[in-house]
Write a structure and sequence with these properties.
homodimer, 217 residues, Rossmann fold, 2 domains, seven-stranded mixed β-sheet, two-stranded antiparallel sheet, globular, DNA-binding
Chain lengths: 217, 217
Amino acid sequence: MENKHLSKNQLRRLPGYLHLLKSLSASGMKYISCQTIASCLDLNKEQVRKDVALISSIDGIPNKGRDINLLIKDIETILGYDDTNNAFIVGVGSLGTAFLHYKGFENFGLKIVCAFDKNPAIINSKISDKPIYDIANLNSEMINKLNVKIGIITVPADSAQEVADLMVKAGVEAIWNFAPVNIVLPKDIIISNMDLATSLSVLSHQLYLKKHKKGEE
Amino acid sequence: MENKHLSKNQLRRLPGYLHLLKSLSASGMKYISCQTIASCLDLNKEQVRKDVALISSIDGIPNKGRDINLLIKDIETILGYDDTNNAFIVGVGSLGTAFLHYKGFENFGLKIVCAFDKNPAIINSKISDKPIYDIANLNSEMINKLNVKIGIITVPADSAQEVADLMVKAGVEAIWNFAPVNIVLPKDIIISNMDLATSLSVLSHQLYLKKHKKGEE
DNA sequence: TTTTATTCGGTAATTAAATACCGAGTTTGG
DNA sequence: CCAAACTCGGTATTTAATTACCGAATAAAA
């Protein structure tokens, strides 16, 4: 219905709103104003108003705000959390294993159904009830059978592109990449990079500044 | 020497440059132009030029570019990768365990030296040669002895703030937070949030758009 | 040596994001 | 029922980020 364009920054703020709203709703609150959201999350109120206006299906009520649960539903719809997407992991190393154990993804509408790896020692075993298949079997037939649209890459950097190509060939629609490389893909494939190095760089740089401001060794 | 201000966005691009430069350097290239970096990473060349100008200690040579290895060193310096920071983990769940196994952090100047948890079953055991201590022992004495300035939070959302407070009280300078909550901290403490939900939201939303554009169920 | 193709640095123009403002309407409390 | 206090939506302003432009300078090729 609404074809409004959300910028990446706006999109990134939504999970924060969602989290707050859920905890407020859980504590019994029924209505919320944009201003309240802003002060809770220490954001600019105009910014929150603008964000909320874009994603909300209803108008706010003056001097009252919006129905929290309706707003939660709107955000979840926009983020696609309301219907479940099946996903699979390629690369059952330490990170991949952690993901197979991690239950939290289902809150975001992501259900990890299986994994692929090339290590014969673990192929056909299970982790947290999710089967590990031979990477050689990752093809379109397989992903149709499993009904998965999302591939998660948790292999080392040097094989990430190769895995991505394999995924595309098998017909995935979206890739969530945890390897610290720039993956080149056809334009119609959705990709989101989760780069630890990038996140760490912000921290690391500020620490550097702090050190050098103080003049410490 | 240079007190130029780097924006968060610029900072986020640096790890990408660094990775590219390293692989080009490894393949024997000696000089690189900003334009080449831009085309490799599919970025705007003016943007790369501006970024590089801010962080480079030397001027570029017309029709030649810059010494790759010098540029690598400059980026590593700015990001603080060139001297090692010791860090510790709080929360030895699946993600925490993965991090204790993961070797890649050392490339970014981050050395995880130990972990804390409250689970008696694992306290005093070791993972990947790194000891796991009782969270009750996380205090200023301890972190001085270990010489750690960075704390990594991998506990569930509902105890993240509590752990963060404990870290601050113990005297850490920076916190890398993997729990999906907004942590409130004194202003002089550096924090970087690594929120899986935020990263996933971008992917999830695009998938939602794709579905609804096609008019599929 | 001269020409040509690049690259640089600095500045200007464009675009996008964040912030501020304001009139209108609604709930709440007297 | 009326006044005061909020909140809204829309618009305007400010700020920051991105992109484009241009003259000068160098390396490489002719």
